[in-house]
């Protein structure tokens, strides 16, 4: 009970207002387009993860696990095999995140301590990510995945960003914003073919905006 109380501590009015607006927006789009409740539940868990992760709250990984389990099904349905494999990898990473963040909290145990990469390390991470993305893109093309190279770049960017987020580096939001920009394009194209994917397009847009906002927030707080 004490842990939960600390996870919801020091969250401002505008945080709750923005979160509620996003959740109601997701519900409204689901009802309007008569989309499956499963897609709505997955979408809301993703929104909760993004908001609480940006605030440095360990509870975000609980929402992340729920999101991963549902998102695997959606990616399989949409033939986004790159994202599917990424999401499977996210499950153990979410568990790792819980233990890593728990060891690196502020004195009041209400949020994590944020840090930043050196320029050299940032360039090394980006270079490695681009190289692996190209190889992965050819693999996805071979197994007939939708948007193979875009999917590969967004997948590798998300893996790298999530790893850096677990390690509490502010630069994770630069990389994940790039990935979410690609995902907005992918989900928009899929939505134009089938309205079922509106919650994913809505989420990708929310994640894109949150990534920009939280980059500057983490940059300000980085040690």
Descriptive terms for the model:
mainly alpha; 9 helices; about 220 residues
Can you offer a commentary on this structure?
The protein is mainly α and 223 residues long. The two termini are 30 Å apart. Helix content is 78%, strand content 0%. The chain has one domain (11-105, 114-221). One of its GO terms (cellular component) is plasma membrane.
C-alpha geometry: globular
Q: What is the typical, i.e. mean, pLDDT? A: 88
Give the beta-strand count.
Answer: 0
β content, as a range? under 5%
Rg on CA atoms, Å = 17 Å
Q: What summary fits the major beta sheet? A: none
Parts with pLDDT < 50 across at least 5 consecutive residues: none
Number of domains: 1
SSE string, helices as H and strands as E: HHHHHHHHH
Helix share bin: over 70%
Supply the helix-strand structural class.
mainly alpha
Q: First CA to last CA: what distance?
A: 30 Å
In DSSP terms, counting alpha (H) and pi (I) runs of 4 or more, how many helices? 9
Membrane topology: Multi-pass membrane protein
Keywords: Cell membrane, Membrane, Transmembrane, Transmembrane helix, Transport
Subcellular location: Cell membrane
Organism: Helicobacter anseris
